[in-house]
Amino acid sequence: MTDLQKRSLLKAAALSAVAAAALVGCGKKEEPAPAPAPAPVASAPAPKPEPLKIAFAYVGPVGDGGWTFAHDNGRKALEAEFGDKVSTSFVENVPESADAERVLRDMAGQGNKLIFGTTFGYMEPMLKVATDNPGVKFEHATGYKQADNMRTYDSRTYEGAYMAGVIAGKMTKTNTLGVVGSIPIPEVIRNINAFTLGAQSSNPKVKTKVVWVNGWFDPPKETEAATSLINGGADVLFQNTDSPAVLKTAEAKGKRAFGWDSDMTAYGPKAHLASAVINWGPYYIKATKEALDGSWKGGGAEWWGVKEGAIDIVSIAEDVPAETKARVEEVKKGLADGSFAIWTGPIVDNTGKVQIAKDTVADDKFLGGLNFYVKGVEGKVPGAK
Predict the structure, then answer these.
(1) What is d(CA 239, CA 209) in angstroms, rounded to the nearest whole number?
(2) Cβ partners under 8 Å of residue 377, min gap 6
(3) C-alpha separations of 299 from 113, 148, 327 in Å
């Protein structure tokens, strides 16, 4: 390389160094590339709340076609309403004895937080179990004792009985009605009396015979009692028992009868005059909603009827006269809006004593302790003084 070429290279290098220094002096420097942002971390979904565990104790089988069947329909209604927010279970054929306490304790021990006992005889066992399980909510059907975590609920079955009576009074040919009674407690006595009062409203000549079976669900005894009433001249039968045995007996013997608690038409289509039914769904939905939202309170009592959608009379037979059907609808409307009261005096018992004075309407306290037969019902209430 010549001296001239060496000098040219040195000059070019010097100029490059000066240019680089000038860039530094002017603050022009290369910034490092920003670090990549960290990838977002997906948040874990909130844990799903555990369903409210609800248990039902049934006195009879769910397939009884009557009382327990109606309660189980109510259980299904609350399941349909709340879906996966609840988990329900039941034990059927729980006797009204010490065994009820064992079953109720087991329900509480399995984590159920709302427990329904669906018959009068569970009252004392449920009260004991409620005392020992203050964190559990207890609901007792047809009872009258409450606690801080136990309340009672009932349906005004006497309203359905009265409407059935309106039909029975018109349809009887012998003027003799028969009732198969379960257990002589105020609930059942009210129904017998209301049935008779309804019948007397459409036929003042009627009289009512009663045979007690001393149990809620005993088809053989119910059949025997129904047969006895028919042999005694009754041509229209009513019941306060849980199976369709009474209606079946009427069908077999060519008489007429009513379904009770549920629509029993299928058990005796020729004999069936109507069914007085209970819809427990509205109350079970209300109680469950309160348990879920924290508004449930113990110590109270609810008594629902036609007004609340708990009681109705359905599947009235085609041969019931139109004017009788219209009267039933009139009664139903009056019960719903409060313009009609069944227990309006004067009401006299079958000994001639005035039990409800003229123009007086009996209150729920009076009805809760009712222990007499109205005029027209034969015999004496078992155990009454």
Answers:
(1) 11
(2) 192, 193, 196, 207, 208, 210, 350
(3) 16, 5, 38
Nearest-angstrom CA–CA distance, 348 and 350: 7
Residues 148 and 222 in one domain: no
Same domain, 238 and 330: yes
Buried b (16+ CB within 10 A) or exposed e, 160-173: bbbbbbbbbbbbbe
What DSSP string describes 285-304? HHHHHHHHHT---SS-EEEE
Q: pLDDT tens digit string along 291-344?
A: 999 999 999 999 999 999 999 999 999 999 999 999 999 999 999 999 999 999
Same domain, 61 and 136: yes
- Looking at residue 47, its pLDDT comes to 76
**Full residue range of the structural domain in which residue 140 is found:** 52-155+281-304
Residue 322, domain CATH: 3.40.50.2300
354 with 216, same domain? yes
Model confidence pLDDT, tens digit, residues 38-52: 666 656 677 778 999
Question: In the chain, how many domains are there?
Answer: 2
**Start-to-end CA span in the chain (Å):** 143
Please report the pLDDT score of residue 258 as a whole number.
98
Domain annotation covers residue 34: no
Q: What are phi and psi of 140, to 5 degrees?
A: -115, 125
Q: Which residue has the tokens 């069947």?
A: 69
Answer for the pair 122, 57: CB distance below 8 angstroms, yes or no. yes
Q: Which residues contact 385 (CB under 8 A, 6 or more apart)?
A: none
> Are 58 and 186 members of one domain?
no
Q: Where are the alpha helices (DSSP H) in the chain?
A: 3-25, 67-82, 98-109, 123-132, 157-171, 186-202, 219-231, 245-252, 281-293, 322-337, 364-368
Beta bridge partners of 208: 177, 377
**What is the model's pLDDT at position 361?**
98
Does residue 73 sit in the same domain as residue 146?
yes
For position 37, what pLDDT does the model report? Answer: 61
Taking 50 as the pLDDT cut, the residues of the chain under it are 1-30
Strand arrangement of the beta sheet that strand 236-239 belongs to: 207-212, 176-181, 236-239, 256-261, 272-278, 311-314
